């Protein structure tokens, strides 16, 4: 069962069950157990042991992310209880004129926070959710905007944790400079670039299609808070907080997280900012930043009696409860990814073997790698794992001498990996976008997938043109034309849904 076609079965079971039953926790658990059964040749006792071995290993390796989420939940709960969120919402209602402005501001903030996708998802959601709720913007729409400005922005930013991941995916002793290769891929990363364009179009035209349109219309008539987040919002503000009591903790959070990443990357040892980001441990940086912001928030609120000591302590439980859905899904998603890793079922090794055996026609390499990257990232829920599997294969097949074709093909891998990750219900970025927007996870997935497919289809055509012409700029132009035609059809056939009043 290891490194065979059966290795793709667990993620398929998970995704099909999740979309069919709308029960993501049980679907993930069944997918994990099915993978453990395959690995142990259907020995039930060993499968149970294996399942929890993987869970312990993956959760242990990602504990900083879980701690970051909980501390951030506590900070958000404290800000809400202080009354600062209420003051911020009242200001926004007076100064931000309409839904379109609120969504554009959300997108701009997501683009500005390009350092790390986890940090992006949760920070943008925390800052913008009070505003978008005021204008009855559906949380599924907010989650889409957050997700569209997380991984797609990070994969285009030279100074980010993602640039480092791409460089580290190159084979050891490679003659290729990873950072230079990454820079060459930026203009040919079709999915990421076109996602930005399509997102701005959806916001500016106020037109939504497929399931997103139904969610947007329903929330305009009666705004819906997902049931898993209602308990965390029932606590009424108790304090006399002002807008500054929201802004200062978030500024400290951003600054401390950025410094934490730079510190773990060696900025104090004389490294440049770019090198420090390339070598950073982003999870340690995030947990350092969140704890620093937590201490700052306590020092800001308690001496001024913005909120009582008792109420502040109560936010510990509230914050933990608010992040429980995201933490639970993340733990299960990491475990499923672990079951599919090279240590167990080795799904990546099987896909890599298939790709290596079917790369005879050079002109089809970009589109082949793009499609395989989408499928692999969708099935495993990880972009970085997809990079690590496919980039070495591309380097081995093309070699360092054809720099142009290598840049286009690696761009196709990055593009497909982000696209598959963007659509996958078991992707950590998708999960955190749902958590940041406090949106039902499967609502976010089901409304986002049609938009992903639109952009991915245009990108597919672009990479076909890339391979035929051996010129990435022609592929970019072709993909842009296809997307422009789709947007023109939407404008002609669809009436504005998310309209301002």
UniProtKB/TrEMBL annotation:
GO terms for biological process: electron transport chain. Its main location: membrane. One of its GO terms (cellular component) is plasma membrane. The chain crosses the membrane at residues 24-42, 63-82, 102-121, 142-165, 185-204, 246-265, 285-302, 322-341, 361-379, 471-492. It holds the Pfam family Na_H_antiporter. It is found in: Cell membrane. Keywords: Cell membrane, Membrane, Transmembrane, Transmembrane helix. Residues 1-32 form the Cytochrome oxidase subunit II transmembrane region profile domain. PROSITE patterns: COX2_TM (PS50999). It is a multi-pass membrane protein. This is Na+/H+ antiporter NhaC. It comes from Anaerovibrio lipolyticus DSM 3074.
């Amino acid at each position: 069962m290891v490194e065979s076609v059966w290795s793709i079965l667990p993620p398929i079971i998970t995704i099909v069950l999740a979309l069919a039953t709308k029960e993501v926790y049980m679907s993930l658990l069944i997918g994990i157990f099915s993978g453990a059964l395959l690995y142990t040749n259907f020995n039930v006792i060993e499968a149970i042991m294996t399942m929890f071995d993987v869970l312990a290993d993956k959760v242990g390796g990602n504990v900083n992310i879980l701690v970051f989420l909980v501390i951030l939940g506590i900070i958000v709960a404290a800000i809400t209880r202080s009354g600062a969120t209420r003051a911020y919402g009242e200001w926004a209602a007076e100064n931000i004129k309409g839904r379109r402005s609120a969504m554009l501001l959300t997108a701009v903030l997501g683009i500005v926070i390009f350092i790390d996708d986890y940090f992006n998802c949760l920070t943008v959601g925390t800052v913008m959710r009070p505003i978008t709720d005021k204008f009855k913007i559906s949380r599924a729409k907010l989650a889409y905007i957050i997700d569209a400005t997380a991984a797609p922005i990070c994969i285009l930013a030279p100074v980010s944790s993602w640039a480092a991941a791409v460089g580290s995916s190159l084979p050891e002793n490679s003659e290729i400079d990873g950072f230079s290769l990454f820079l060459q891929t930026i203009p040919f990363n079709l999915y990421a670039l076109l996602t930005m364009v399509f997102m701005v179009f959806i916001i500016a035209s106020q037109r939504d299609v497929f399931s997103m349109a139904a969610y947007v219309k329903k929330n305009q008539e009666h705004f819906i808070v997902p049931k898993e987040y209602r308990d965390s919002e029932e606590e009424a503000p108790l304090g006399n907080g002002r807008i500054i009591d929201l802004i200062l903790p978030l500024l400290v959070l951003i600054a401390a997280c950025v410094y934490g990443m730079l510190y773990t990357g060696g900025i104090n040892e004389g490294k440049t900012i770019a090198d420090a980001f390339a070598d950073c441990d982003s999870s340690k940086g995030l947990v350092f930043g969140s704890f620093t912001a937590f201490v700052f928030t306590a020092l800001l609120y308690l001496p001024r009696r913005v909120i009582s000591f008792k109420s502040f302590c109560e936010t510990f439980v509230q914050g933990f409860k608010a992040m429980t859905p995201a933490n639970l899904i993340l733990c299960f998603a990491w475990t499923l990814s672990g079951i599919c890793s090279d240590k167990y079922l080795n799904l990546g090794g099987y896909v890599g073997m298939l790709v290596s055996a079917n790369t005879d026609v050079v002109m089809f390499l970009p589109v082949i790698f793009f499609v395989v990257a989408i499928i692999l990232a969708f099935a495993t829920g990880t972009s970085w794992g997809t990079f690590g599997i496919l980039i070495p294969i591309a380097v081995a097949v093309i070699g360092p001498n054809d720099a142009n074709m290598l840049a286009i093909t690696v761009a196709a891998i990055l593009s497909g990996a982000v696209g598959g990750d963007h659509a996958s219900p078991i992707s950590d970025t998708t999960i955190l976008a749902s958590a940041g927007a406090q949106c039902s996870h499967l609502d976010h997935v089901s409304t986002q997938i049609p938009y992903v497919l639109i952009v991915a289809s245009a990108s597919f055509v672009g990479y076909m043109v890339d391979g035929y012409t051996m010129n990435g700029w022609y592929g970019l132009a072709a993909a842009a034309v296809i997307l422009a035609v789709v947007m023109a059809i939407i404008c002609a056939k669809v009436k504005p849904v998310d309209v301002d009043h």
